[in-house]
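Hey, resending since the last one bounced:
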Amino acid sequence: MIVTHTRNAEGQRRIYFGGKASVECWIEPDDDGRGWSFHWLPAVTGQPLHAADVRAIAVYALQKLAEELSVATQDLHQVPFDTIAALHTSDPFIRRRMAQGRRKIVEQGFVAAPPVARSEERSHSRPPSPVAPRIIR
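The structure tokens again:
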């Protein structure tokens, strides 16, 4: 599974799961910095999916994440956000697919960025600038 840690210009973080697919799945950290919430939206596809199919795909993404972390699916909520961020796929182009936000506007501009260790994050007063996308020719 492709795991993409992202950060936008305001420093907000998200972790997307999978590449470009029928359903976009991601988690966002809670205010406590440890917990997280899971979100999903149907992607723009040629054929609309039924709500039951969308939910099944989202559940499958959580099951694959649990496998990656070697935890039971029912215990997945206990895994800290930063532990999941450490699974960041350093080169999402390996499989020629890249997870990214559905909307392509500046406010939604989450850019893939390796997670920063907590001690490094505290030492900087401003969030790191977004990483320029790599162009493959």
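Residues 3-123 form one domain.

Sorry for the duplicate.
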